[in-house]
Amino acid sequence: MLNPALAEQSGLLHLPEIQTAFIHTPPGIPCQYKITKDPGNGYGYDIYVNGKLFVHQPFVPGLSGVKGFSRKSDARKVAILVVKKINLGIMPPTIKREELDSLKIKY
């Protein structure tokens, strides 16, 4: 989990199940992520913008196949990256294999 001071600086507020970040444009619209668990397939994440499901990602993005993240912490790292891309206006917030490697995601 991120250091609380670092989370505050980045605009991310860490809550038990749903994590919240605020999109800067338009101001004040919440962007949240929730780590999901598929008993047979590992972890994934959902991204909500203004309370509505925006991204449902049950498996590791940027790879072929439908394998979930083996570690909850890996799903969280990628969900945070997606939120950051949304905050920057990068649409769609696509994740590439190189980004997974730079985050040291196990796949």
UniProtKB/TrEMBL annotation:
Record's protein name: DUF4907 domain-containing protein
Annotated Pfam families: DUF4907 (PF16250)
InterPro entries: DUF4907
Organism superkingdom: Bacteria
